Amino acid sequence: MTIREQIQYFCDRFGKQVVVNQTAWRYYRLGTGTPILWLTGGLRRAAFGFAFMERLAARHTVIALDYPPVQTIDEFLVAFDAILQAEGVERFALGGQSYGGMLAQAYLAHNGRVVERLILSSAGPADYGRVWLPVEYLVIALVRLLPEKTVKNLLTGGLLKAVSVPEAERAEWLEAIEATMQRDLSRADVVSHFAVAADLIRKGLVKPAAFHDWAGRVIVLSAENDPTQSRKDIPRYERLLGRTVEVVSMGAMGHTAAHFRPDHYAGLLEQALMLPDESPVPAPIA
Prior knowledge:
Shape: globular
Radius of gyration: 18 Å
CATH class of the domain at 3-127 and 205-274: Alpha Beta
Low-confidence stretches: 279-286
Number of helices: 11
Largest sheet: 8 strands, mixed
Structural class: alpha/beta
Strand content: 15-25%
C-alpha cells in the first residue's frame, strides 16, 4: 500500500468520534496495556503516525486525535477530558510532539492529577510571554486576509522545513502531506493553529504554579538536528515544571522521527514509558 493508503487503512481500523459542544472530534484507540494519550503536531492529523503507534500498541493502549479548527485552548482541554472519559481512562502517560507538546503542557496544567508522566518530543516550554501575542495576532490577521491557497502553501513550506524524509519514501510522504494540506485542511485549521496558541498565552495557563502539586516525571526526547529545539529548553523546562527533566537523546533522527523512523521512535517511547521511578534514562537507539 502507498503511504496515503496506509494512513486511510489506519483511520478505518481505529477511528472513533466524540461530539463535544457541537464539535466533532475524530480520535483513534488501539492496543492494550498502560494507556498513553498522544498529541500530534502541526499536521493536525494523528494518523500520519500510524506506524509508530501500531508498534507502541503492542504493549500500550494508545489514544490519539485529530484537531478540528477550534479557536480556544479550553475547547481542546474539554475535548481531551471527554475522550478519556468515553474510553474509561482514568490515569495515563501524556505525550506530545511539536505543537502537541504545547497542548500537552496546557493539559497537564489543567488536569495534572490524572497524568502519571509527561513525555515531550521536538517541543519547547510553552510558558510563552505575552510579548508574543502581537506576533500571533498579526499572523492570524494575515491568514484571514491572504488567499487560502497561499496560506496553505506557506504552512506546507514551514512544515516541510522541519521534515527529514527518507529518500526512498520521499515522494509518497510529500504526496500524502500535500494531499492533506490541500484537500483536508482549510483556512480555519490554519487560523486555529495560531489562535489556540494565542489563547493559551493570553490566559497564562502554563506557569510554574500550575505544576507545584503534580508529582509526576518529565522525559524529553531531543534530537541534535531538530531546528525547533534549543539548548536552553531543558533549564527552562526545569524552572517551569519545578523538577529535574530527564533527556532521552534521539541522536540525529530529526524533528519528524515519529513519522519517518517509526521503529526507532517507538522503541524510545517504549523505554520512556517503562522507566520505573528513579531509574536511569536509557541510552539512545543508534
